[in-house]
Amino acid sequence: MMMNKLKLAVAGLCIFALSNFVQAQHSPLTIIPQPNHVELKTGTLKISANALTNLKGFKTPPASINQFAKQVLSQVKKGTSLSKNQKVDLVLQPNANIIQDGYHLNIDANGIQILSSNERGIFYGLQTLAQIIAGANDNTLPFVAIKDEPRYKYRGLMLDVGRHYFPIEFIKSYIDVMAAYKLNYFHWHLTEDQGWRIEIKKYPKLASIASSREGTLLNHLKDKEHLYDGVPYKGYYTQHEVKEIVRYASSKYITVIPEIELPGHSLAALSAYPEFGCGDKPGPYKAAMKWGIFEDVYCAGKEGTFTFLQDILDEVLNLFPSEYIHIGGDESPKAKWKTCKHCQKRIKDNNLKDEHELQSYFVQRIEKYLNGKGRKIIGWDEILEGGLAPNATVMGWRGVKGGMAAARQNHDVIMVPSSHLYLDHREAVSNEEPLTISSGPTRHSSLKNVYFFNPSIDTLEADKQKYIIGVQANLWTEYIKTPAKARYHVFPRIYGLAEIAWTKMENKDWENFSKVRVPKHLQAYDKIGEMYRVPEVIGIENKVYTGKEFEFTLQPSVAGAKVYYSLSGYIPTEMDNLYSKSFKVTVPAGEERQLKCVVITPSGKRSITTTAILSNKAAQSK
Question: Are 607 and 536 in contact (CB under 8 A)?
Fold first, then answer.
């Protein structure tokens, strides 16, 4: 039942709806991502749940569009009688001057029309309509003209299932959320040192052995003593299940990009097929129980390694129609290659300079194989080392320098810097945050940090900007083993990702986004009882305020939630002061007060505590 509620809320866009630019504060719309042109007009349209949907211009009306249109209208509350103008015209006009994924949406006295030159544009127009309907009062929609198109053609979200396996139903809900916020590429990270998660029929031990590990690290990798649970961990997706996910994503106009890691992050695969490790008698190997980087990688000198990987990729290609295949290429130590006679022979025979060029040889050989099958590779920015594969697309994750370097070599680039778009990082530096991969006094990525990232780096030359084709956020799961924790890390930062991927810079508005739209979207999510991270209270920061008298005007970060505060130095609860209006705090000379605030939602979720130090100590020194 909960999964059905989630699907309905997300497919109905989890929410209420938005507008853009100057009129936004007066607008009844709260759409995410913000459309790029919105003209609100005088007048309203009453919509009925029985409104007719007309598909025009389609040679064969796609079932996914027809079905989703009905789903959107199912949100309309019953009670409004049907009239002739209560119709939704979905018009496909291939010669219309509208780019891929763009659409025009008009609501006026004649009804609702969504026009596009392509099916995906119609789908995204319906997603916007779903948000407008979800936010409507009494089934009344404002007259509005929206002309919208994406900033980037690649708008991605990654899920790592190598560290922790996630059930099929969760992955479908993940895809639903992506579609709701106009993301169009699902990057599925399927293989890791800790587990191999896809069935390969030619190599059955990848499922029977490589998908398992003996236990899992309980505490942080950087803790002095490592603790393990001692519980065997296993999981993989059958080829039937993979096909189901690919089909489901396609119905939402999302392309699934599989990632098969090579040459590194291959310890689990080597545990099943040790002969593809370095040396004459490699192994035995075990899938890793902790996180990090491991020296055991595929042997680059053995022909059998390439036969093994090509056989695997052949089966992967039959499962995934994506133009792109992600081959990893990151964090691959060279120590084993330096002492392996087979790898050293490969270096000598091919006149390679060193092990970095050997990695380039490895990647380029796999790329050539995939190119021959009509596919292109994506790799992490380490594939730049030793020379970039000629037709590769680069995911820049180690800051932005790798992506910029690739763009300067005329390679397509997808920006995914860990500093901004690794959603496994905590959102704030606080002991109240759950265990995450983040460590240190400053390492985190807040919603604001995500929102203000610009993938088209200002310092990149103008003629190279065209190679920045998109942006992606990654959810690595070393410390995320449940769907609930995954949702905690994704929401609300996915809203920021959607906006930087879709909305042009000049149409973005942080104040409206953070204070109006995000609170409304989270309110809807709170109502279905799913996990998410409650942002901190609006109107106060973790910092020192100096003076004698202080006045605070606060706002809950989730619409309909409450703010509680205390001056006792203790974390506030529902038994402390309930915020209802602006208040003042007077601090005696030479003293300080700690103002602590939390947001508590109707479902009982809490934000972390915001602590403001109110200091009047300067008065004592005068």
Answer: yes
